[in-house]
Amino acid sequence: MIPGARLILLGRQGAGKGTQCVRLSRHFVVPHISTGDMLRAAVREGTDLGRMAKKVMDDGGLVGDDIMIGLVRERLSHHDAKGRGYILDGFPRTVLQAQVLDEISAEQRIDLVLDLDVPRELVLARLSARRVCRDCGTNYVASGVEKLPWICEVCGGDVMHRDDDTPEAIEHRLDLYEQQTAPLIEFYQSQSRLAVIDGVGSPEAVFRLLAAAVDAAR
Ligand code: ADP
Ligand code: ZN
Question: Could you list the residue range(s) of the whole structural domain that residue 114 is in?
Fold first, then answer.
Protein backbone atom coordinates (compact mmCIF):
# COMPACT_ATOMS: atom_id res chain seq x y z
CA MET A 1 0.00 0.00 0.00
CA ILE A 2 1.30 3.45 -0.95
CA PRO A 3 1.82 5.60 2.14
CA GLY A 4 -0.23 8.79 2.27
CA ALA A 5 1.22 12.28 2.07
CA ARG A 6 0.57 15.78 3.36
CA LEU A 7 1.63 18.21 0.69
CA ILE A 8 1.26 21.84 -0.35
CA LEU A 9 1.75 22.93 -3.93
CA LEU A 10 2.65 26.61 -4.36
CA GLY A 11 3.16 28.44 -7.62
CA ARG A 12 1.96 31.27 -9.81
CA GLN A 13 -1.44 31.17 -11.45
CA GLY A 14 -1.04 29.28 -14.72
CA ALA A 15 2.01 27.31 -13.54
CA GLY A 16 0.01 24.10 -13.95
CA LYS A 17 -0.75 23.58 -10.25
CA GLY A 18 -4.23 22.21 -10.80
CA THR A 19 -3.18 19.58 -13.34
CA GLN A 20 -0.18 18.49 -11.29
CA CYS A 21 -2.28 18.30 -8.11
CA VAL A 22 -4.71 15.95 -9.84
CA ARG A 23 -1.80 13.71 -10.82
CA LEU A 24 -0.20 13.84 -7.39
CA SER A 25 -3.49 13.06 -5.72
CA ARG A 26 -3.94 9.95 -7.89
CA HIS A 27 -0.32 8.88 -7.42
CA PHE A 28 -0.28 9.16 -3.63
CA VAL A 29 -4.01 8.34 -3.28
CA VAL A 30 -4.84 11.42 -1.22
CA PRO A 31 -7.63 13.99 -1.67
CA HIS A 32 -6.88 17.04 -3.83
CA ILE A 33 -8.11 20.02 -1.82
CA SER A 34 -8.39 23.08 -4.06
CA THR A 35 -9.73 26.20 -2.37
CA GLY A 36 -10.46 27.73 -5.81
CA ASP A 37 -12.63 24.69 -6.69
CA MET A 38 -14.36 24.89 -3.29
CA LEU A 39 -15.17 28.58 -3.86
CA ARG A 40 -16.37 27.98 -7.43
CA ALA A 41 -18.67 25.20 -6.13
CA ALA A 42 -20.11 27.67 -3.59
CA VAL A 43 -20.65 30.22 -6.40
CA ARG A 44 -22.52 27.61 -8.48
CA GLU A 45 -24.68 26.62 -5.55
CA GLY A 46 -25.50 30.27 -4.85
CA THR A 47 -24.69 30.07 -1.12
CA ASP A 48 -23.94 33.24 0.91
CA LEU A 49 -20.26 32.41 0.70
CA GLY A 50 -20.56 31.94 -3.05
CA ARG A 51 -22.26 35.30 -3.60
CA MET A 52 -19.62 37.10 -1.56
CA ALA A 53 -16.70 35.21 -3.11
CA LYS A 54 -17.86 35.74 -6.70
CA LYS A 55 -17.33 39.50 -6.53
CA VAL A 56 -13.87 39.16 -5.05
CA MET A 57 -12.84 36.41 -7.48
CA ASP A 58 -14.08 38.19 -10.59
CA ASP A 59 -11.86 41.17 -9.67
CA GLY A 60 -8.91 38.87 -9.08
CA GLY A 61 -8.81 39.73 -5.36
CA LEU A 62 -8.29 37.44 -2.38
CA VAL A 63 -11.13 36.15 -0.23
CA GLY A 64 -10.60 37.04 3.46
CA ASP A 65 -8.21 34.95 5.57
CA ASP A 66 -10.85 34.12 8.22
CA ILE A 67 -13.22 32.66 5.67
CA MET A 68 -10.52 30.67 3.90
CA ILE A 69 -9.05 29.35 7.14
CA GLY A 70 -12.53 28.26 8.29
CA LEU A 71 -13.13 26.40 5.01
CA VAL A 72 -9.80 24.58 5.10
CA ARG A 73 -9.97 23.77 8.81
CA GLU A 74 -13.33 22.12 8.24
CA ARG A 75 -12.16 20.20 5.15
CA LEU A 76 -9.00 18.90 6.85
CA SER A 77 -11.09 17.49 9.70
CA HIS A 78 -12.74 14.98 7.35
CA HIS A 79 -11.87 11.31 7.64
CA ASP A 80 -10.00 11.03 4.30
CA ALA A 81 -7.65 13.93 5.04
CA LYS A 82 -7.00 12.83 8.61
CA GLY A 83 -6.21 9.31 7.48
CA ARG A 84 -4.19 9.41 4.29
CA GLY A 85 -3.32 13.10 4.07
CA TYR A 86 -3.99 15.60 1.31
CA ILE A 87 -2.58 17.84 -1.33
CA LEU A 88 -3.42 21.50 -0.85
CA ASP A 89 -3.87 23.59 -4.00
CA GLY A 90 -4.40 27.35 -3.63
CA PHE A 91 -3.93 27.37 0.14
CA PRO A 92 -2.08 28.87 1.94
CA ARG A 93 -1.90 32.09 -0.05
CA THR A 94 -0.87 34.50 2.70
CA VAL A 95 1.60 34.25 5.58
CA LEU A 96 -1.28 34.36 8.07
CA GLN A 97 -2.93 31.38 6.34
CA ALA A 98 0.39 29.49 6.51
CA GLN A 99 0.84 30.26 10.21
CA VAL A 100 -2.66 29.04 11.07
CA LEU A 101 -2.18 25.96 8.88
CA ASP A 102 0.87 25.09 10.99
CA GLU A 103 -1.38 25.15 14.07
CA ILE A 104 -4.10 23.11 12.38
CA SER A 105 -1.61 20.49 11.20
CA ALA A 106 0.59 20.50 14.33
CA GLU A 107 -0.18 16.85 15.16
CA GLN A 108 0.24 15.58 11.61
CA ARG A 109 2.93 17.73 10.07
CA ILE A 110 3.03 18.66 6.39
CA ASP A 111 5.62 16.44 4.69
CA LEU A 112 6.72 18.87 2.01
CA VAL A 113 5.90 22.19 0.34
CA LEU A 114 6.49 22.16 -3.41
CA ASP A 115 6.96 25.40 -5.32
CA LEU A 116 6.16 24.95 -8.99
CA ASP A 117 8.34 27.62 -10.54
CA VAL A 118 7.24 29.15 -13.86
CA PRO A 119 8.23 32.76 -14.71
CA ARG A 120 5.53 35.42 -14.93
CA GLU A 121 6.12 36.03 -18.68
CA LEU A 122 5.27 32.39 -19.43
CA VAL A 123 2.11 32.11 -17.37
CA LEU A 124 0.34 35.03 -19.07
CA ALA A 125 -0.09 33.18 -22.36
CA ARG A 126 -1.13 29.98 -20.57
CA LEU A 127 -3.78 31.80 -18.55
CA SER A 128 -5.50 33.40 -21.53
CA ALA A 129 -5.80 29.99 -23.20
CA ARG A 130 -6.98 28.27 -20.01
CA ARG A 131 -10.45 26.70 -19.91
CA VAL A 132 -12.01 24.84 -17.01
CA CYS A 133 -14.83 22.33 -16.54
CA ARG A 134 -17.47 24.08 -14.47
CA ASP A 135 -18.48 20.80 -12.83
CA CYS A 136 -15.28 18.91 -11.96
CA GLY A 137 -12.63 21.63 -12.31
CA THR A 138 -10.50 19.80 -14.90
CA ASN A 139 -8.27 22.27 -16.75
CA TYR A 140 -7.92 22.43 -20.53
CA VAL A 141 -5.93 24.55 -22.98
CA ALA A 142 -7.88 26.16 -25.83
CA SER A 143 -6.34 25.93 -29.29
CA GLY A 144 -9.19 27.83 -30.99
CA VAL A 145 -10.41 24.89 -33.10
CA GLU A 146 -12.56 23.14 -30.47
CA LYS A 147 -16.09 22.10 -31.33
CA LEU A 148 -18.58 24.09 -29.22
CA PRO A 149 -20.17 23.50 -26.81
CA TRP A 150 -17.01 21.99 -25.35
CA ILE A 151 -17.82 18.95 -23.19
CA CYS A 152 -15.53 17.74 -20.40
CA GLU A 153 -13.90 14.36 -21.11
CA VAL A 154 -13.87 13.49 -17.43
CA CYS A 155 -17.44 14.24 -16.33
CA GLY A 156 -19.46 15.52 -19.30
CA GLY A 157 -19.77 19.05 -17.83
CA ASP A 158 -19.42 22.32 -19.77
CA VAL A 159 -15.86 23.53 -20.38
CA MET A 160 -15.78 27.33 -20.02
CA HIS A 161 -13.54 30.36 -19.87
CA ARG A 162 -13.27 31.32 -16.19
CA ASP A 163 -14.90 34.67 -15.32
CA ASP A 164 -11.66 35.68 -13.61
CA ASP A 165 -9.39 34.85 -16.55
CA THR A 166 -9.81 38.35 -18.05
CA PRO A 167 -6.56 40.30 -18.71
CA GLU A 168 -7.29 42.78 -15.86
CA ALA A 169 -8.11 40.11 -13.28
CA ILE A 170 -5.09 38.04 -14.34
CA GLU A 171 -2.73 41.00 -13.84
CA HIS A 172 -4.29 41.73 -10.47
CA ARG A 173 -3.96 38.08 -9.34
CA LEU A 174 -0.33 37.92 -10.43
CA ASP A 175 0.44 41.17 -8.54
CA LEU A 176 -1.23 39.79 -5.42
CA TYR A 177 0.77 36.59 -5.84
CA GLU A 178 4.05 38.54 -5.73
CA GLN A 179 2.92 40.62 -2.73
CA GLN A 180 1.08 38.06 -0.59
CA THR A 181 1.98 34.53 -1.70
CA ALA A 182 5.62 34.70 -2.85
CA PRO A 183 6.75 35.48 0.76
CA LEU A 184 5.62 31.93 1.61
CA ILE A 185 8.57 30.59 -0.38
CA GLU A 186 10.94 32.25 2.10
CA PHE A 187 8.69 31.22 5.01
CA TYR A 188 8.93 27.51 4.15
CA GLN A 189 12.52 27.69 2.88
CA SER A 190 13.71 29.00 6.24
CA GLN A 191 12.12 25.94 7.87
CA SER A 192 13.73 23.55 5.35
CA ARG A 193 10.35 22.28 4.21
CA LEU A 194 10.49 23.55 0.62
CA ALA A 195 11.42 21.96 -2.70
CA VAL A 196 11.51 24.26 -5.72
CA ILE A 197 10.56 22.41 -8.90
CA ASP A 198 11.16 23.79 -12.38
CA GLY A 199 7.64 23.93 -13.83
CA VAL A 200 8.74 24.67 -17.40
CA GLY A 201 8.55 21.43 -19.37
CA SER A 202 6.09 18.76 -20.41
CA PRO A 203 3.44 17.89 -17.81
CA GLU A 204 4.89 14.36 -17.62
CA ALA A 205 8.44 15.58 -16.99
CA VAL A 206 7.30 18.08 -14.36
CA PHE A 207 5.23 15.42 -12.62
CA ARG A 208 8.25 13.10 -12.41
CA LEU A 209 10.25 15.86 -10.70
CA LEU A 210 7.43 16.53 -8.22
CA ALA A 211 6.90 12.87 -7.33
CA ALA A 212 10.66 12.32 -6.92
CA ALA A 213 10.90 15.30 -4.55
CA VAL A 214 8.07 13.88 -2.42
CA ASP A 215 9.67 10.42 -2.31
CA ALA A 216 13.01 11.96 -1.34
CA ALA A 217 11.41 13.91 1.51
CA ARG A 218 9.80 10.90 3.19
P1 ADP B 1 -5.71 30.93 -9.52
O2 ADP B 1 -4.60 30.14 -8.90
O3 ADP B 1 -5.74 30.83 -11.00
O4 ADP B 1 -5.84 32.34 -9.04
P5 ADP B 1 -7.70 29.49 -7.88
O6 ADP B 1 -8.65 28.57 -8.51
O7 ADP B 1 -6.67 28.91 -6.97
O8 ADP B 1 -7.06 30.27 -9.11
O9 ADP B 1 -8.46 30.63 -7.07
C10 ADP B 1 -9.43 31.44 -7.68
C11 ADP B 1 -9.78 32.60 -6.76
O12 ADP B 1 -10.31 32.11 -5.54
C13 ADP B 1 -8.60 33.45 -6.34
O14 ADP B 1 -8.29 34.44 -7.31
C15 ADP B 1 -9.11 34.05 -5.04
O16 ADP B 1 -10.03 35.10 -5.29
C17 ADP B 1 -9.89 32.91 -4.44
N18 ADP B 1 -9.07 32.08 -3.53
C19 ADP B 1 -8.73 30.77 -3.71
N20 ADP B 1 -7.95 30.33 -2.69
C21 ADP B 1 -7.78 31.38 -1.86
C22 ADP B 1 -7.06 31.59 -0.62
N23 ADP B 1 -6.36 30.59 -0.05
N24 ADP B 1 -7.12 32.82 -0.06
C25 ADP B 1 -7.82 33.82 -0.62
N26 ADP B 1 -8.50 33.70 -1.76
C27 ADP B 1 -8.50 32.50 -2.39
ZN1 ZN C 1 -15.63 17.84 -15.82
Answer: 5-118+165-216
**Is the sign of the CA dihedral 61, 57, 183, 38 positive or negative?**
positive
Model-wide pTM > 0.85:
yes
Ligand 2 center to 15 CA (angstroms): 20
What is the mean pLDDT, run by run of 10 residues, along the chain of 218 residues? 90 94 96 96 95 95 97 96 96 98 96 96 89 91 91 96 91 96 97 96 97 94
- Residues with Cβ within 5 Å of ion ligand 2? 133, 135-136, 138, 152, 154-155, 157
**Atom number in ligand 1 closest to CA 72:** 23
Q: Is residue 88 part of a domain?
A: yes
Task: Note whether residue 126 is domain-resident.
Answer: no
